[in-house]
Design a protein that fits this description.
With 205 residues, this protein is an all-alpha fold. It is built from ten helices and no strands.
Amino acid sequence: MTLAGFLAYALALGIAAAVPGPGVVALVARALGAGFRHGMAFAAGLVLGDLVYLSAAVFGLALVADMLGSLFVLVRYGGAVYLMWLAFRLWSAAGDPTQVAALNGERASRSFLAGLVVTLGNPKTIVFYLALVPTLVDLRRVTMTDYLALALLTAAVLVLVMTPYAALAARARGFLRRPAMLARLNRSAAVFLAGAAVWTVARRA
């Protein structure tokens, strides 16, 4: 691959990632509800999900992905259910400092899993890697070195795009520590998560 090819891929990925979709909305809601650490864990799950689809595109697994369409439907619905559960937890916590602290103290692996499942079931991600990437990259000529470079580039671009979302959401949470304001914040985040769940189910590739 040429430098121009890598730049074209990075630009397309950055634009696609920055456009708000189920992943971005859920990331913001997770950071609002549980803080920056959970927001970044969620982002790490998003990155891994993208790398799964990048691998599918590079190694010619698009046909397999198409054959397993029903499996991806199940993943999408599973992700939506998980987001709804997180939304319920946030709504229930409201402004109770004890419950909020419990949410903040949850294992980050749960947020990571949520990010991974949301990405694997996100039609926008599927379309980008299995339909758009082949038009940007000559997959027949991608070497293992090119693949590793694309993987690192993918992770770097996604982290650069997602970190400001998580940081701003977590910072907004830090400004609103009064119980009444925290209750509104948690319930708003719960609504965002529920909306992301509905969006995940409603959208089609």
